[in-house]
């Protein structure tokens, strides 16, 4: 991600209820409704541009499992998602199912681009309200407005931030690998030991973490017992918690121990730097695993991110898919069948998980061999599933337009602190002012 985001990484960035029979279309455990398999029909699906290659085998497998059924897919530029879908809605050309990202859930629901998924989740099929990981499903739960309490998306992958670490670097330095007892202070102590410099120039960073990224600062703020937004849905970056979090990261950027976004970009990106051995540890998401496997020659593994203030919190996010209102009205049976198949252990989840890039968002598959038994690295796959319980999400009430302002202003704040020695509190105050102006404009416009 130039500036990495969970949404981008679910190129990134989770199966059926326990007891589901071998066929993913058999009766769900405790269900009395049989799921009839369609024998004809066409299902239209809009997918992100970066997801096309990975999802084409899924579509082909579904067509093979349903002779007579066809999938017609179209591609949405991920950078133009909202505009593209709004344009299709105005032209009455929405697909039956569309991909979306967590930050767009409320806006797309209010714009009638996506439909409430509760009818699907309560239809008696194998995938129900208790099937999908609640932290990720809740990212698509609308909490206010006309669609309050509706669920306007189903997560495709359960992505939480974990710690990738280069085992060779640890072995060469005689340092034990990261474990569940690590604190932030311990991580920085080890990162400092692993950092290598030529004079004042860092040639190998002990740690890489994108600081102006909600998956870094939101967990930290929550670990200190606070929240990102106030009761009026406005940003509060002048709190003790916010200042502590940004200070403890930016101090390490200034020390040349931590590679934040600009340093990672200079090294070709976080995963490239990790793969080249110019970064010893990298905080990022499961969706990076295929890329890291493709470029890393040293042995490596993953661990939990360390605790902060005695609390374990980790960033989380997802992309999703949702039936559109036209799809719900005109092609519901086929759309329901596809989604039940997609989230089954022998269906779409198996195909996607085989590429290392996703953890199935279905609780019954957290220990499934379709992803846990893939050859390492990584070896400690439990980390990806267990980290979900510690997930701290970016508030779903933040409009996508405002999130873009947040990203830009916090990047400016980082530059001011790291390059110009501006006090952290002053830099965050300047960012907060611009961000809340943007939030007020969107609220005034009914966004």
Word description of this protein:
This protein is α/β, with parallel strands linked by helices and 447 residues long. The chain has two domains: 41-158 and 318-366, 3-Layer(aba) Sandwich (D-Maltodextrin-Binding Protein, domain 2), CATH 3.40.190; 161-316 and 395-444, Periplasmic binding protein-like II (D-Maltodextrin-Binding Protein, domain 2, 3-Layer(aba) Sandwich). Helices cover 39% and strands 14% of the residues. The chain contains 19 helices and 14 strands. The protein has helices at 52-65, 81-90, 105-110, 118-121, 134-137, 167-173, 184-194, 214-223, 240-254, 261-266, 270-276, 289-295, 325-330, 332-342, 348-353, 369-372, 382-386, 400-420, 424-444, and strands spanning 41-48, 69-76, 97-101, 154-155, 159-166, 196-198, 201-204, 207-208, 258-259, 281-285, 300-303, 314-317, 319-323, 391-393. The strands form four sheets. It has a five-stranded mixed sheet with strand order 2-1-3-13-4. Strands 5, 10, 11, 12 and 14 form a five-stranded mixed sheet that branches. A two-stranded antiparallel sheet has the order 6-7. Helix 9 (240-254) crosses helix 18 (400-420). The radius of gyration is 22 Å and the shape is globular. It starts with 40 loop residues before the first strand and ends with a helix.
